[in-house]
Amino acid sequence: MPEPKGWKELPIGGIIDSPGSARDLETGAWRARRPIVDKDKCTSCLQCWMFCPDMAVVVQADKMRGFDLYHCKGCGICAKICPADAIAMVAEAEAGTEGEGG
Ligand code: SF4
Ligand code: SF4
Q1: b/e burial code for range 60-91 (CB count within 10 A of at least 16 → b)
Q2: Segment 20-70, tens digit of pLDDT
Q3: Is residue 78 part of a domain?
Q4: Pick from 25, 31, 63, 98: CA 20 to 30 A from residue 87's CA?
Q5: What is the CB < 6 Å shell around ligand 1?
Q6: Taking the model in full, what pTM does it have?
């Protein structure tokens, strides 16, 4: 195959064969940093839930309960958006079992 000369010649990528399949992929395996919520600071405003691109914030009975670590890829958007500064991004190597189980 000849070298493409520009981006318009690159083959089309992305999820095009099976849209809606993201929940079947364990994107948590990509994560280098893990969000850890300080439940004393969290007000359950749910902004993290609204902004998470992976629907990885767990909400039950209108309360923020933690993170779905099978799908959280550690982008840090939730920590940036949190108005209560209740989410810390911790290196996976240092996180241990913290935050597991939601
Ligand atoms: S954005 Fe912050 S305060 Fe709001 S629910 Fe999420 S962790 Fe809690
Ligand atoms: S780090 Fe990113 S993927 Fe993980 S819960 Fe926060 S916003 Fe969602």
Answers
A1: eeeebbbbbbebbbbbeebbeebeeebbbbbe
A2: 676 777 878 889 999 999 999 999 999 999 999 989 999 999 999 999 999
A3: yes
A4: 25
A5: 37, 42-48, 64, 82, 84, 86-87
A6: 0.81
